[in-house]
Each structure stands twice: as structure tokens, then as C-alpha cells.
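Kindly go through one protein, given below as sequence and C-alpha cells. The question is how this chain folds according to its C-alpha cells.

***
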Amino acid sequence: MEYSRDTLKYSFGQIAERYDEIRPPYPPDIITTALRRVAKSAPLNILEIGCGTGRATRMFAERGHHVLAIDISPELVAVAARQLADLPNVRLEVCAFEDLAVPEGAFDLVISAQAFHWIDATTGLAQVYRLLAPGGAVALFWNFLHYDSTPILRQLRNTCVARVPLFAGWPDAGTARLLAFANQWRTSVGAVPGLDLVFETIVPSLRSYSHEQFLTLLSTYSWFLTQPETVRESLMADLRAQITSASEPLLVPLRTLLISVVKPPIPQSE
């Protein structure tokens, strides 16, 4: 079965609370690195594309920056509004990035956590270039489960691929797929005049989950959410039977990919 990008990216609203509870956070080093790339000193004007429930939003806003955080899902934004109510420097808006109307050069930093792959890379980066002030930067980052790291995770991954072939194309599915994903972004950045790829890194981390928590985590991904109910139920039954052989809690390595891009400042005349 073929799935359009719109079908997949609109699937998260149906599980907004579950998404907020179980998705892993982002390593603080990613945020520090992203901020270092901006020529301007704080506070920055930041645009966040695909804010979800506000996990990354908080990490930037708590450092005193002004954040306009947008997402296409009213349900996700409603959760974010509750979670970020203590931060007056955050403005939330239900809006697709393609429809965002703001002046050219309005932002010092554009960020997108776990979301920019839902946007056409070339046109999306060209729009980002228009919205960035000279000396501004872009930080695109994603958390990926490292299924290649242990026998039980490989077994669970193989079961997912067998039941849902769509999953084989996700960067989580294997190291080769993750590296291909990173290479696609290098190529996309290179195709946009005026943007310079300055940094790419993969930051490892480790998360601990009970068996049920890990199965719940899997149930928040679009490749799972868009399957017919019978497929989801059958897959979960298989995964639950297999995961019982693993020790508990289950230690799950993650890899966070950061693509950092800059818009060079205007040269100073002599």
C-alpha cells in the first residue's frame, strides 16, 4: 500500500497525549550547538517548524529566546499550549510552514525537530533562506532508534519491516538508511544558493523503557499509525511476544542527527 506524505504527517494528531508522554527528548548538546551557529547574540528570534507538543520549543525558550512555534496539528498545538503556558516568550500557531506569512529576514534561527522531512526539501530550504536574517542559522534534528545495536532490537525491527514494509524506508530501520538520509540533506542544502552546510553530527544517547513503554513508543510513529487496525493489532501481538525475552527495563540506544546550516552575514565594506 502506498502512503502519501500528507497521510503520514497528519497522523500524529490522533495520539497527541501519548506522543507527548513517550517520545524521547533531545540531547542538550544539540541545542547548544545550534545556538552557536548564529552570528547574533541573544535573545534570538526563532521560528520552529513542526513544534509538536513543545519538547524542543521549551529547550530554546528557557534560554530566553523568542520562539514562534508552528504545527499543522491543532491537537498537538493544544498540548504544547498547556505544556508551555509558563513561557511568555513562546507564541504558538496552527499553521503549515508553506502558508506562513512573515517578513523576509524575520528570524535569526530556524529549527525543526523531528519534522522537516515532511516538507519538500528544496522548496522548504529556499523558504527558510528567505526568512533568515543574514548571519542566521538553521538547525534540523531528529531522534532515531538504533535498532542495529542489540539482538532484541534487530529482531523487533525485522518484525516491523516484515509486517509494515513502509518502515524499511525510515532512517531508524538501519545504519545504512540513516546515512543515506543524512546524505540526502547534504545534497538538498547544496542545491539552495546562499546556504552553507557547516555542521553535521550524530549524537548518541540511551533511554530506558519498560516493555510496555517501548511498545507504546512504537505506536506513535506514522508508519504504524497509518496501518489498518488489523495490521496494528497483529504487529503488536508479535512484538509483545518477542520482547518478553528481553531484560527489563529495555535499554534503547538513540542517535540524534543534527544538520546545521548558516546564511552568511553581509560582508562589511572596508
